[in-house]
Amino acid sequence: MRTTDNNGREFDNTADDPRQRAELVTGGLGFADVTEVVSNVAERPRPPLAWYVALAISVSLLGVLGAMILYLFSTGVGVWNLNNPVCWGFDITNFVFWVGIGHAGTLISAILFLFRQKWRTGINRMAEAMTIFAVICALLFPGIHVGRVWLAYWMGPLPNQMAMWPQFRSPLLWDVFAVGTYFTVSLMFWYVGMIPDLATLRDRARGKIQQVAYGLLALGWTGSSRNWHRFEIAYLLLAALSTPLVLSVHSVVSFDFAVSQLPGWHTTIFPPYFVAGAIFGGFAMVVTLAVPSRALFGLKNVITLRHLENMNKIILVTGSMVGYAYAMEFFIAWYSGNLYERFTFMSRALGPFAWAYWTMIGCNVVAPQLFWFKFFRTHIWAMLLPVMCVNVGMWFERFVIIVTSLSADFLPSSWGGYYPSWVELLTLAGSFGLFMTLFLLFIRFLPSIAMAEIKTVMPQAEGKGPRGFDYNPDEYESPGRVLATGGSH
Amino acid sequence: MSLALGGGFAALYAAGIVYFGFSPLATDVGYMPTQPIPYNHALHAGILGLDCTYCHATVDESPHAAVPPTQVCMNCHTGIKRESAEPAKSRIAAISAAYAASEAIKWVKVHDLPDYAYFNHSAHVRRGIGCASCHGRVDQMDVVYQAQPLSMGWCLECHREPERFLRPLDKITDMAYALTPEEQLRVGRELRQKYNINPSQDCSTCHR
Amino acid sequence: MSHTATAIDTRRTDGASDGGRRLHALLVEFETPSAIKEAARRIRDAGFVRWDTHTPFPVHGIDEQMGIQRTKLPLLVFACGAVGCLTGLVLQWWTNASNVDLPAALNFIRGYPFQVSGKPFWSLPANIPVIFELTVLFSAFGAVFGMLVLNDLPKHYNPLFRSQRFRRVTDDRFFLCVETADPSYDPQHTPALLRSLGGTAVEEVYDEPTPPAPTRIVNRVLVVLLCLALIPPAIIAKARVSRSDSPRIHLIQDMDNQEKFKTQRAYPLFADQRVMRLPVAGAVARGELGDDAHFERGIVGNGYAEQFPAHRPEVRLTAEFLQRGHDKYGVYCAPCHGFDGSGQGRINQRAIELEEPAWVAAAALTDAERRSRPVGHLFNTITNGIRTMGPYGDRISPEDRWAIVAYVRALQRAHYPRAGDLAAVENIGPRERDGGE
Fold first, then answer.
1. Most confident of A154-168, B31-45, C78-92
2. Backbone CA torsion sign across A165, A168, A169, A174
3. Residue C303 sits in which domain range?
């Protein structure tokens, strides 16, 4: 697919011909150019107008979120339309949705790192930031969903005047530990990776405030090789720790449902199905964020079309896995012979929430199939169609799981409907405001691309010219050595 | 290094503030509300030796230890009208006036559990928990104040080891009753066996 | 870039101070990763110890060239992970499954096994997720903080930051730095060696003995903060030792005060504001019909009952019944009538001390007049009061009143024994005589 870079030159880095290796950084950039291109985002005196417009919208939504939360706290959870039997609605749907979004960031930063997928360097910082902000949005909902945020300390094992402890036998408490650990580890992973790039911004900063702020954050990093050595080991270990962690987080989230006995929830397929869905939805969000970011801030040479295409391929794969899980749920419902299980699934497809179910199927299973075609994978506007479908579809997946099962369980006399109140709708919209505000501030003020990591995958790092290949036979001379130095190569 | 030390100190400091400052010993104990009429427990229960149940008569039969009706005051104060203490304003006159007008005196509740905790006085005083264990030496208080935390953790202390507090049934209202810790444990164990005391620690014992 | 641009003045490279400045290190700048790798090998071979290379990204293979030992960080991370695993295990067992007696002061961290949904207190499968998460969490802390501590970070002051040239180390330049504190450092030969490495520039980096201005500001801020930090403990200490009529501090009221009717609470709906209401006029509660005049009022026919209402099961003239009478007498009667029935109770004494004009002295219950009264009369006096004595009918149940009457009779008998009573006392053993009340 031929396209043009920032300098108007034609190039093709989405080639599928194995003899023709793709460049990870296009435009013939050198080390200093990478520094310049990335730092420029934070250093330019004024971001593009579109950034201001987006920030204005996001901050307004954030204000709406604040107002809705204040209203919730001051009045009580009655402002949401939750009641028996649907006692979880938008709150937990949003929680699972946002936690899931976060998973793509960890997948890119940790799992692709362990698999030595060099192309991750262009997008990993942004994806990790997305993880942090998505998990912040996610943590918000369980935090407020009982309407008494001041009792949040009950979730931690803190000695108190009640002599009470958390109840460790409940999956809801596992959630606290899983999501809390996930947030903490992701934050550390993100920050540690950012230290060298913060040092770059520190060393280039001209204003006093920037010098002090970036200086404090960079912790006095000097790029010492002795420091790099431990840094790379620590980074590798964090990646190795994050990989099982990210798999555990959505598994534990799925336990919230799977450990209960409600038909439609009580299934063993939930953990892998949730994890696949989380990665699926998360990648869609990364693409959604990367497309405007690279266009607005002139990062097309570092977040190249090939990066987007690779992510679209992952969306296709995980989307198919999710589709398989949907089919398997139905199969097991039929095969189990369990009356309640069968009814629940028939009700999902044909009952009062069928509109939500078929929205989910259309968005999550049908739309990603477009990515079988290279045209959709490599054309910005064409890829946005399935990607936006997935963003919507993955929210509906959680909604369908939570609401259909709760609304019609074993006892027909206790069935009930659910529709969100205006407060719930605005809270959902507001959570996007929180997410986007944080992301826009990140893009503007922090190194949104991992400069130091990109430099390691550039041909110049191995003493070659700017048109070298990303495959470097030297690397494989001593496999043990590659492991020891962490493998940002 | 200094950062780590500073961080450690800050964490210890915060933990100390929370431990000492958020404890009911700081926030609750010592609550001494001003009553509409300054009734003196030290005089009535201490010097005159009135039994607790003379006024709080329902304590051994009901969950609630009733504040006595004004008429109970009048049992004595129809005849006794002189103030012993200095204040010029007559406390007894105020009682008499309220009685004559059939008006309730709005005594302020000192020992007030949250409304979601269900406490039964009769269950405790009939099974060997003395008044002073929870209310302190009321016979020495001119103005009654909250002497104990009344927190859940404090309740559990006794529910877990009642032998540390049990006393014979004829000593329930005895304010001065006290044994050495060893003696108390010995007597407490005997009484626990005798009264078959097995306090529940389930949630629904107190939160229904 | 030419070497002459940064020609070294050897007179100042001897580590001596120069106007308070001290030569800290020599920097050599390179433009490519391969150049610095070659230079690193030569410096290592020259036997230097206190030296380092600084690069914008981890240069592949430079660790061997510099002879860097593999870090022990993974072992530290493993240890942290093991501690995390153990913490998860012990934490859950201690809090949810253990019930170990602790000293009272430690009661707030005692385990509390409480029943939920019939789940076992301790069941490993349910505890695995938290154990796993804590293992990962502690390991990650070990990796991050271990890396920072081993790297001597954060270290916001570093003499290298005084070099303008060194700022490109985070961009596209590669530096080799030899500290003057190195034992192999030689003011004559080392600069020459560094110049021969083929770098694009060699530069001296000086340190200054005085701490930079930010340190002084930070110290002042710290002192102020420490002083401010004394205020909360002072407030807490005062709250813990003093008494106050200001309300208890429950920042979050939640359901502390619910809108429900509780005994003896006020409720503004009613004129008298009492939440406890009287029964509708004419209503009779179960068991309170009042149709047993003998038992409930002490009246038989038109006069006071001469006998106890023996037809009622509650009234049995046993030692237990007398004991109950004794207890209730002690609470309700003794304050005025005295424990011995002499009429010299503490209240009576006080009224006489105060010379109360309206006080009618409490009667001696053992005098001839009271001894001659029928039990029904005594019962009626307790129930309805007499002269300045208030009525106790609403505070003492009928059977307790009968018990008091029985005890009063016993008191009277004790004061005026009949012939033969003493003989009966003689007959009981010394133990009962001493122990009895």
1. C78-92
2. positive
3. 293-432
